[in-house]
Amino acid sequence: MTPAPGRITWAGAAALILALAVPTGNLWAQSDAGRMASACEAAGTAGALLCARAASAGQVLGGHVGLLAGLGSEVPGSASALGVRFDGGPRLALHVRAGVAGISLPDPADPELPGGEATFSVPTLHAGAAIGLFDGFRPLPALGGFLAVDLIAQASVVLLPSGSGFGGGVESFSWGVRLGLVKESFTLPGIAISALRRSPRMASLGSVAEGDSYEVSAEPTVTSVRGTIGKDALSVGLLAGLGWDSYGGDLLIRAGDAVAVTDAFEAGRMLYFLGASWNLLVLQVSVEGGWAAGMDTPAAYAGRPSDPSAGTYFGSVALRLTP
Fold first, then answer.
1. CA-only gyration radius of the chain, Å
2. Do 320 and 101 contact (CB within 8 A), yes or no?
3. Which of 65, 96, 182, 184 has its CA 20 to 30 A from that of 217?
4. What digits encode the pLDDT tens for the residues 296-310?
């Protein structure tokens, strides 16, 4: 059966979000951890495996701090742009969110090679706001909210466990924009894409001076792209999304008696997430769960414990107020 002109099907909406949210071309940035491992090996007496272990840990630390600073949807429980009020004024949404993600990396307190694995479930706290500035265009009678614009800002703290060798909690600030593609209606799901920049502070793990096999410090910058599709049915809403995180910044590693090796690094990975929400007039409660794909790893550490090419889970619960 052929859809009527101007009508958009769920399958078509899903195809649209996939086309817009999934990166194309050579966007799978190669990690620089292998280059840093080689520089570490050349700088001291640490062997290839120990240096690869330290470089892998630094990449995991930077990437997971970047993940925890953002998680899934940028505005919890919201798949389409906010738009503006009936009187033309901006629409505001405020949210608080508690999340968690798994971190597995080489245990710096284990002197053996290839060494054991240190695994943590790391919590994070977010507080953010979104403001709708433009309600978008209506190119078809059944299609509204095209190119609607929201501005988004968020403050976060990643609660790395300081008693486990980490340097303590890491604060982060995120800012960016969300563009609506389809405004949710009685028959259509809402679809939007967003792009945010995140700036976490420096995170550190281990101390060679205190007997650890390696130490690392990472100060990542993150560019996050998200695509979401969702629909409310009475007071319950469902959401699905895809994301791409691109990590960069400075990474410092030290292994054995090697001098500190500092260099820029970059890596990227896909994220997949699902969510459900309960709407109570201006207040909404939402939950999300997802999976972050792995990142490239130095060849000397491939297949070892805490190989960064393995993915990790993440999840969150949030409250959103849209007065």
1. 21
2. no
3. 96
4. 776 666 666 666 677
